[in-house]
Amino acid sequence: MASKKMSRKQVNGLVTSKGGDSATGSTASQQKDDHEMEAMKEWWRTRSLNAPSPFQQFGPCGRIMKNSAMVMQIQDPASQRLTWYKPPLTVLVIKKVRDSTVLSPFVQLVEWLVQEKNMVVWVEAAVLDDPLLVEDKRFQQIKDKLVTFKDGRDDLTDRIDFIVCLGGDGTLLYASLLFQQSVPPVMAFHLGSLGFLTPFQFDNFQDQVTNVLEGHAALTLRSRLRCIIVRKGERYKEALTDNETSSDRTETAASNHLFSDNQQTPNMRASTNILVLNEVVIDRGPSPYLSNIDLFLDGKHITSVQGDGLIVSTPTGSTAYAVAAGASMIHPSVPAIMVTPICPHSLSFRPIVVPAGVELKISISPDSRNTSWVSFDGRNRQELFHGDSLRVTTSIYPVPSICAQDQISDWFDSLAECLHWNVRKRQKCLDELSDLTGSGSEDTLDDLDRANDSLLDS
């Protein structure tokens, strides 16, 4: 066990020295050294959340064809930590609505940010209309120093440096909705019902916020899905220039890639282009008939879904609606898209996980008896008609969620505390069961029958 505490440099020295001895040592000694080297490599690998780089030669002749254009630099999620290249000055505070228990923490936080940290605090305009806040004297003293915005009217892009959420998971989903491109770092305090995405406790908020403002925090990059509805009569076009790379591509141009074959009329249904943090759901709505949905992956027809609907979710959303529909729970650092049927009319239709880079196309089957309805993180519900299609792929704009501890500890703590994952009574050991039966493993059924007969005779 002592060897596992050695530094990488020491291990390299050990490997080098053993390699020199193996030239004169026996074959058995060389095999032992090789085994130790492999053990050390395995130890290095498990310190990263990324999978190990696969060995690219297969047997004597086969290997992966090298293509420099396809080489990507992927950072280890475990090393993702927050840093500020300039001090944050503006903070958006999002609080849970219609919950009086959040008002006192909200006033404490806003007052401290304004008076102690000298930050510009943004809040939603509707928050100031809360009758309980109007009666709060402490809040009235700082009310005029706050900057307000209205959802759907004011654009917050490049105006906010930092986001603090007070409430439940819905506050984080709302922050994702407000920022449809780059999202400022989000620090979420658990003041709601479930709190799976809100790892911070409010008791010592001053110390915790100060640590984050000083850049002492780990980050979980929660991927989002880019969802585009293409209405009948429109055509979807992916346009990338030859010299443009995926890293400098801007998704704001995605809405410009929707071209109408004819001029748009006032009666034509508007297209939808939105990012979701949890999931996009396609269901049968009020219709009594089964949904009949065609699913395509990168242009290839995969299957037709007959049932109540379909859930396309991120790894973050795997612990939401998807897990209730029977899907697996996936760590948010795993690059993937989940496809989960809702009550499929098939015993063999199991949830699947596909690579994060694919594009899914979902449309109403031509022979479907009814239309479908689609919702995005539980909002913007609208009807999907015959001839319409929904395009879904992973966005380049994740939600940077600040960790209370680290990516692994926060997630498993949430599984245990919020979902009671794998909670059950522990099995008793054999000593505790000794008083329940006097029979041994060698007793036969005849012996037990005779023992029962003697008890009855007595």
Fold topology:
Blueprint (H helix, E strand, L loop, with lengths): L7 H14 L5 H19 L11 E2 L3 E2 L26 E6 L7 H13 L4 E5 L6 H4 L2 H6 L4 E3 L12 E6 L1 H10 L7 E5 L14 H9 L5 E4 L2 E6 L3 E3 L21 E3 L11 E5 L2 E5 L7 E7 L2 E8 L1 E5 L7 H4 L11 E7 L9 E4 L3 E6 L7 E5 L2 E6 L4 E6 L4 E4 L4 H12 L26 H13 L1
Helix pairs in contact: 1-2
* Number of DSSP E strands: 23
Strand fraction equals 15-25%
- CATH topology heading of one domain: Tumour Suppressor Smad4
Q: What structural class is derived from the secondary structure elements? A: alpha+beta
CATH class value of one domain? Mainly Beta
With strands numbered from the N-terminus, the spatial order across the biggest sheet is 12-9-22-19-14-15
Question: Helicity, in percent?
Answer: 10-25%
**Contiguous runs where pLDDT drops below 50 for at least 5 residues:** 1-25, 238-250, 252-268
- How would you state the average pLDDT, rounded? 82
Number of helices: 10
Family: Belongs to the NAD kinase family.
Organism: Hermetia illucens (Black soldier fly)
Keywords: Kinase, NAD, NADP, Transferase
EC number: 2.7.1.23
